């Protein structure tokens, strides 16, 4: 029997992958069953609707959606499913992702998209947020997340600065 996918990672183009792979890598690190796909809002609208409409039935707990420019993908997915959508603004060529950020974060009242930082940090944090959501009902996963945070604390605590000349 095939494994139930817990988190979907979708993006508007394969050019988004360099950013969105940061989400997939975190999910892999935490052992979360996930999939990664291109589902372009303006080039594949029917596939976008089908993905969103099937998400709950397929058992997805979250969809991490990344897009750049006039980034409709996260909001349109959210309009067609109540599975939580975590939006990642991808840095765009001309406006460096500020356009993506505004497109994703400014959802009108009633259909939320949880929006993360532009770029790699946002993609990684969206995945960490999905892990935290899943950890609510999974003590072993919560322990892994606590360990991840502890390692960061240790690394920051060990940081030193060069002496002032
Ligand atoms: C958006 O347009 C994608 O999410 C991507 O960030 C941007 C550019 O897409 P490509 O022209 O690289 O396919 O749809």
From TrEMBL:
It comes from the Bacteria. Residues 5-156 form the PurE domain. InterPro entries: PurE_ClassI, PurE_dom, PurE_prokaryotes. Substrate binds at residues 13, 16, 43. Gene3D superfamilies: 3.40.50.1970. Belongs to the AIR carboxylase family. Class I subfamily. Catalyzes the conversion of N5-carboxyaminoimidazole ribonucleotide (N5-CAIR) to 4-carboxy-5-aminoimidazole ribonucleotide (CAIR). PANTHER family: PHOSPHORIBOSYLAMINOIMIDAZOLE CARBOXYLASE (PTHR23046:SF2), PHOSPHORIBOSYLAMINOIMIDAZOLE CARBOXYLASE CATALYTIC SUBUNIT (PTHR23046). This is N5-carboxyaminoimidazole ribonucleotide mutase. It comes from Xenophilus arseniciresistens. The gene is purE.
């Amino acid at each position: 029997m095939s494994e139930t996918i817990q988190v979907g990672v979708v993006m508007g183009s394969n050019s988004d992958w360099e950013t969105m792979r940061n989400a997939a890598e975190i999910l892999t690190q935490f052992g979360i069953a996930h999939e990664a796909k291109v589902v372009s809002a303006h080039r594949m609208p029917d596939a976008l609707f089908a993905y969103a409409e099937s998400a709950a039935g397929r058992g997805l707990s979250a969809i991490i959606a990344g897009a750049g420019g006039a980034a409709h993908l996260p909001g349109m997915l959210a309009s067609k499913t109540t599975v939580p959508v975590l939006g990642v603004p991808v840095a765009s060529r001309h406006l460096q992702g500020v356009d993506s950020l505004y497109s994703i974060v400014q959802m009108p009242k009633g259909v939320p998209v949880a929006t993360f930082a532009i770029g790699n940090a946002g993609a990684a944090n969206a995945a960490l947020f999905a892990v935290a959501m899943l950890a609510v009902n999974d003590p072993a996963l919560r322990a892994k997340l606590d360990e991840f945070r502890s390692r960061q604390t240790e690394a920051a605590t060990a940081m030193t600065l060069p002496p002032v000349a």
